[in-house]
Amino acid sequence: MDPTRRRYLQYAGGAAIPVSLAGCIGTAPENNGTDNETDPVDNDTDNATDGGNETRPTGTGGPGVTIAATDDDPEIPIQPAVEIVREAATVDNPPQLRTTLTNTSDEAVSVGEGRAVHFEYVTADSGTLTLLPPAGDDDYPADPDCWRLTEGIAITEEYRTFEIAGGESNSRPVDLYATTEADGCIPVGDYRFETTISLTGDDAEADGSATWGFSITLE
């Protein structure tokens, strides 16, 4: 397989199998974060139940998420970051994070793979949680008010890139779902997400790749 291509997995029946879809070289749309508004945490005081999950915040549909740890900045001219946008699920939305990539150099760099660098479709090391771009008009197959996927998400096998100008940042929101391997709804516990950031640019120092990740706690 071409080393610049990434093979994504589809979860089906609790087992991970390769998704074999024709891919192509594409360019992901750039989003500099100017239109990403932070959704407020639902402060509704209604009580909710989730199979006896006593850690669920009042008025939400699951445990609250916090950033437990982040890796050190990689030795490439990109500084990754992650923050909480919606710390717990609501009836209408799963928990949400936002990832940001900042180009610390003076030259523009191309970043890839364009989805994975923002942790889109990246699954936690446990296999029970995954991060997906907001669903938009086409909802993902998930249990209502539970945010556990009921079937696998097929991802096209392609390698996307986008450019970040010197000194600029690029941000995207990602929603947190339980996979088909999870036992019940979004489970409490500690989870780690990790991805590879690859760069190309006019400056030789802009070329390279690095692995970066973070850990979250659900309680």
From TrEMBL:
Record field: compositional bias (Low complexity): 48-58
The organism's place on the tree of life at top rank: Archaea
Species, as recorded: Halonotius roseus
Biased composition (Acidic residues): 36-47
UniProt protein name: Uncharacterized protein
Segments for region (Disordered): 24-75
